[in-house]
Amino acid sequence: MYRSIPVADPAGAGRSAVVLVNLGTPDAPKTADVRRYLRQFLSDPRVVEQPRWLWLPILHGIILPLRSRRSAHAYSTVWSDRGSPLAFHTRALTDAVRDRLPASVEVEMAMRYGQPSIADVLRRLDHDGCLQRLLVLPLYPQYSATTTASVFDAVMAELATWRRIPAVRFVDEYCSLPDWQAAVAGSLQRHWQAQGRGDHLLFSFHGIPQRYVDAGDPYYGQCRASAAAIAARLGLAADQWSISFQSRVGREPWLQPYTDARIPELAAAGVRRLDVACPGFAADCLETLEEVAMQYRDLFLGSGGERFDYVPALNDDAGHADALAELVRAQCADWPPFADRTA
Ligand SMILES: C=CC1=C(C)c2cc3[nH]c(cc4nc(cc5[nH]c(cc1n2)c(C)c5CCC(=O)O)C(CCC(=O)O)=C4C)c(C)c3C=C
Ligand SMILES: [Fe+2]
Ligand SMILES: [Fe+2]
């Protein structure tokens, strides 16, 4: 019934582990792999809040057959010999965070959809039954039920099958942390020092349905507040920056303004040189590298703009890893090895 494993050292103090969880990505940019990934992703009731009897026939009859091929093509434009950008950037960030923490804390990455799955990573961490303390850090700076809460669901679904459950802590958001805001502002400043600065800075966040925000999802407020905090650190005036929402799927209204409407609007208002940053994405991925850096570049240049700069996500930037390692230390301050409780 519940998972049984012989405990290697019943008298031992047990171990502490940190799991950084990102969204996940297909195994390969092929229609069949993308289809398997989209099926898991879009079957999650946190992502698509529709009655299952209504949604599942649409998903299997229309969305998966049409979207898998189209998305596979989009993935093939960003795939590299290191694999999917979301996967290799998340791995590099996890390594950088691990390097900054005591060697006795295990630091692993997991993916909400696809591989390595949350269930596999948790079981591996508890292979000897000695995982006693677990910090889950979803790599979403802003909380949304569609992303953050879905990670929580998957962690709890796995632990619900365990006999010996570790103490669990869960990070709900980190966009309000000054260290993270400083890391984003710092990467923009470095970009401007190297490339020069545009006329306007657009912060483009992944959208969600407006209906979810109306029902209490704090995502919109956190996007606005964190963009404003970053702009303030950069000393930008109100007309030098704005926010928008990208990656809409389906027909119902999502958060606005839409990035693909805002970009031509900025060009028409006289912006010749546009900088775009995506501070809702911890790691570069399909949505930043293909949708923003390719599609929206073409859109801006085709609307009369002269120069378009996509400022990369923080990925394994030192300031990013420092901020997340500090967040782990603060969250686990009373756990070994951060605190010696024998004192
Ligand atoms: C259909 C509903 C979707 C919601 C709601 C949604 C929210 C959401 N997503 C991210 C981050 C990422 N999404 C990515 C890809 C992606 N997102 C959706 C749909 C929704 N996302 C789809 C169908 C896809 C797959 C690609 C496609 O077919 O267009 C990715 C990139 C993954 C990669 O492999 O590179 C990320 C990251 C956030 C932060 C969010 C809500 C706040
Ligand atoms: Fe998404
Ligand atoms: Fe997309």
From TrEMBL:
Known EC number: 4.98.1.1
Gene Ontology biological process terms, A to Z: heme biosynthetic process
Main subcellular localisation: cytoplasm
One of the record's GO molecular function terms: metal ion binding
Pathway: Porphyrin-containing compound metabolism; protoheme biosynthesis; protoheme from protoporphyrin-IX: step 1/1
GO cellular component, one term: cytoplasm
CDD domains registered for this protein in UniProt: Ferrochelatase_C, Ferrochelatase_N
Catalytic reaction list: heme b + 2 H(+) = protoporphyrin IX + Fe(2+); Fe-coproporphyrin III + 2 H(+) = coproporphyrin III + Fe(2+)
Family per similarity comment: Belongs to the ferrochelatase family.
Record's protein name: Ferrochelatase
